[in-house]
Write a structure and sequence with these properties.
It is a single chain. This protein has about 240 residues and is α+β, with helices and mostly antiparallel strands. It has one domain (about 5-190). It has 7 helices and 6 strands. It has helices at about 5-15, 20-50, 100-105, 125, 170-185, 205, 210-215; strands spanning about 65, 70-75, 80-85, 115-120, 135-145, 150-155. The chain has a 6-stranded antiparallel β-sheet. β1 (about 65) and β2 form a beta hairpin. The relative contact order is 0.12.
């Protein structure tokens, strides 16, 4: 081996020993967090059902379902939240505000994170296998090797990237993460699709049940999603 080959190969070894090991650590950390998150979802569904007592119908009661190693589901009323742990580890693009944080700027490996995403679907979309219906990303949590975290999402409290690295993720943080996702989903209503989107149907679509095959459903189909950042005025009453 000549000296010209040693430098690139040493960089390869260095990346394998450092970056790949860190990514493995993050993945293991995220798996552990996701396991705790599943416990939180199960416990929260039981607690809220007890609070509902006999006042609510069976349809509005919460139902938790473990969908496997990387997914969990929480149903309530007409909504379903699907919590998904991505199997890959990510770094933020150079324009992301997290790079203004000294914790990441001074040690770039601190910016490598695993991601837990939360999607909101209509219960009937899953029940009737309406594959063209839409779900919406309502929140996602980023977790690094130190168990430092921050959140992006609708009405989530820990979205300030300046706080990233100043505390480690706790069970209470996961509870707050889930509660915010549920509250937002319950206030995020299904709107009637624009008339022109559903004014025509073929005979074939009618024969195969129009509500499943033609009228694609989503809470804001044809409307601006950004408007939902504004809190409902009733919530301030």
């Amino acid at each position: 081996m000549n000296s010209d080959d040693s430098s690139p190969r040493q960089r390869i070894i260095s990346l394998l020993n450092v970056k790949s090991v860190i990514k493995s650590q993050i993945f293991d950390q995220c798996l552990e967090v996701f396991s705790v998150l599943k416990d939180v979802l199960s416990e929260m569904s039981n607690d809220l059902n007890e609070m509902l007592g006999n006042t609510g119908s069976r349809r509005v009661r919460l139902e938790y379902r473990d969908r496997g190693k990387f997914e969990a589901e929480l149903k309530f009323a007409d909504d379903v939240l699907i919590f998904s742990l991505h199997t890959d580890i990510f770094q933020f693009d150079r324009d992301h505000p997290v790079w203004k944080n000294p914790y990441v700027r001074n040690s770039p490996y601190n910016g490598y994170c695993g991601v837990i995403s939360v999607y909101n679907f209509l219960y009937d979309s899953l029940k009737y296998n309406r594959n063209d219906d839409l779900g919406y990303l309502v929140a996602r949590m980023f977790i690094n090797k130190d168990k430092a975290f921050f959140v992006e999402g609708k009405r989530q409290k820990r979205q300030i990237t300046d706080l990233f690295g100043k505390s480690t993720l706790t069970r209470d943080d996961l509870v707050a993460f889930v509660e915010s996702a549920i509250n937002y989903s319950l206030s995020f209503d299904l709107l009637v699709p624009p008339y022109d989107m559903v004014k025509e149907a073929t005979v074939g679509e009618m024969n195969t049940k129009i509500e499943s095959s033609r009228m694609r459903t989503g809470k804001r189909l044809g409307f601006k999603y950004n408007s939902d950042d504004v809190l409902n005025t009733e919530e301030h009453a």
